Amino acid sequence: MPLAKKYIPHYTIQDYMRWEGDWELIEGIPVAMSPSAGFTHQRICGQIYYQLRELLKVCKNCLALYELDWIVSEDTVLRPDVIVICHKPEGEYITKTPEVIFEVVSQQTLQKDQMVKYEIYEKEGVRYFVIVYPEKTSAIVFKNMDNKFTKLTEEGDNKIIFELEDRTFSFDFSKSFT
User: Fold this and answer.
1) Nearest Cα to Cα of residue 131 among 107, 147, 154
2) How far apart are CA 157 and CA 22, in angstroms?
3) How many other CB atoms sit within 10 Å of the CB of residue 41?
4) For residues 8 and 94, what is the distance between their CA atoms, to the nearest angstrom?
5) pLDDT tens per residue across span 110-160
6) Are 93 and 69 within 8 A, CB to CB?
7) Separation of alpha carbons 79 and 98, rounded Å
8) What is d(CA 147, CA 144) in angstroms, rounded to the nearest whole number?
9) Which residue from 144, 146, 102 is spatially nearest to 126, judged by alpha carbons?
10) Which residues of 155-165 are buried (b: 16+ CB within 10 A; e: fewer)?
11) Are 159 and 171 in contact (CB under 8 A)?
């Protein structure tokens, strides 16, 4: 048995719900969130959320949400920056896989967003995963095809079409960086 499994506690959603502060839980391991997001991160997340909210107004099933816990499993809870769901939430947290996830990376979150969350989102069947790079004013868009992310495009000033079950919409990346 690996030492980590033998000696490091394995936490669950019940433990997570009692913790104070900002955490994510990844396969039973608590991961402290970075300090409060800075101005650039908040501004870009706000622009993404606002644009998605406006684009999805006409769909009664689709909803854009900002920094809400997604309970992936009994031992994994993540807090994506911005998500799109096409179902009514069952309670105060998201328990079904989001359709679209945007993660705005920083130096502190780069590895977790590009590697750990990428793998979890891919495995869980997130339809689109967008990694936003504020310093480069660009984003990489991945689409899940047959349980494998495929890079669709790297955007900065262009639009991309997101095709969801209930709605297709064109997202303008140039509006995220203004």
Assistant:
1) 154
2) 33
3) 18
4) 27
5) 888 889 999 999 999 999 999 999 888 889 999 999 999 999 987 766 889
6) yes
7) 12
8) 6
9) 144
10) beeeebebebe
11) yes
Domains present along the chain, CATH in parentheses: 35-176 (3.90.1570.10)
Element (H, E) at 111: helix 110-111
Phi, psi of 8 (to 5 degrees): -90, 130
CA–CA gap between residue 96 and residue 108 (Å, rounded): 27
pTM of the model: 0.91
Q: What share of the chain is helix, strand, coil (3-state, %, to 5)?
A: 30, 35, 40
- DSSP three-state, residue 122: helix
Q: Which two tokens stand for residue 69?
A: 């816990």
Residue with tokens 């048995």: 1
Q: Quote the tokens at residue 106.
A: 């920083």
Residue in the block written with tokens 């310093």 = 135
